[in-house]
Amino acid sequence: MKRTEKIKNLGFFNVDKPSGLTSGTIVNKCKWLTATPCGHMGTLDPLASGVLPVGVGNAARLFDHFLEKEKEYIAEFTFGVTSDTLDSTGELVFGGHVPSGREIAEVLPEFLGEIDQVPPKYSAKNVNGKRGYDLARAGVEFELPPKRVRIFGVELLGEAEKENTFRVKIACGGGTYIRSLARDIAERLGTKAVMSALRRTKSGFFTLENAIPFSVLEQDLPVEELEKYLIPTEKTLPLERLELTAKNAERAFHGMTVDAAQADGLYKIYQGDLFYGIAEIKNGKAKIKTKLC
């Protein structure tokens, strides 16, 4: 049954995605509940759980902004095994030794900072107009070039309950593949590994502390109840307010570049009391970058 009552306010649902569901399933549920276009701010693999911000309405225009924010994960790496997908959902091939916790901890600092990482073939990476996972499933041979990613922190938390498995905490920039990190750490130790579990605990502003379980959305709450869980867009942006003269503000709202006295960077811009969107100042000139209202 189609839901016709649209949600009045726009913003974000910070959903705690359960393992086993696709990110698209979560987004589609949000679309149905709000009767409004929605989009997630960085996908999670079906195996993964945790923080999945979903932008409702124009809030989804901030995808690129949130994509670059710091992410934090708790991962489980199982050693002595590999797979075509680099995680435990693929075709497992056993072989290779299982390192000690001490050996793993000793090599982790080598992965800090900016590193080159080859994405998994089973990924959404575009190869000549086709997704990597589609080519891989079709048995097509191809190579993905390495990309530069940022690792802010990587810490061994100890052994997991699963045999030959260790828990690792990772803080990283957008676009980092934790599956690839498992592969590369294992290769540094002369063995193999797959990612066997993953939980995202933070994505920029969004954390597990301000997330809602997917089970809340499954209750098919009426719109007025649903809005209680919606995070207003402006609360998710730790930016200063752009101060413009009345004349320059009016010109900016018509898409013009105007003079600005504040430092270069991104700012929230308001039309009266209405949060209008994000503006950017470059070399003393301001222009609206993203309209959200």
The best one-word shape is globular
* Average pLDDT metric: 92
Low-confidence stretches: none
The total of beta strands comes to 19
Classify the secondary structure makeup into a structural class: alpha+beta
Measured by DSSP, the beta-strand proportion falls in 35-45%
Number of domains: 3
In the CATH hierarchy, the third-tier topology of the largest domain is known as: Pseudouridine synthase
The N- and C-terminal alpha carbons lie at a distance of 29 Å
Largest sheet: 11 strands, mixed
The number of distinct helices, counting runs of at least 4 residues, comes to 8
Gyration radius over CA: 22 Å
CATH architecture of the largest domain: 2-Layer Sandwich
CATH level-4 homologous superfamily of the largest domain: Pseudouridine synthase
Order of SSEs: EHEEHEEEHEEEHEEHEEEHHEHEEEE
Helix content: 10-25%
Q: What top-tier CATH class of the largest domain fits best? A: Alpha Beta
Descriptive account of the structure:
The two termini are 29 Å apart. Strands 1, 2, 3, 4, 7, 10, 11, 12, 13, 14 and 15 form an 11-stranded mixed sheet that branches. Strands 16-19-18-17 form a 4-stranded antiparallel sheet, covered by helices on one side. The chain has 3 domains: 11-66 and 205-235, Pseudouridine synthase; 71-201, Pseudouridine synthase; 239-291, Archaeosine Trna-guanine Transglycosylase, Chain: A, domain 4. The chain contains 8 helices and 19 strands. A hairpin with a 2-residue loop joins strand 17 and strand 18. 19% of the residues lie in helices and 36% in strands. The chain is of the alpha+beta class and 293 residues long.
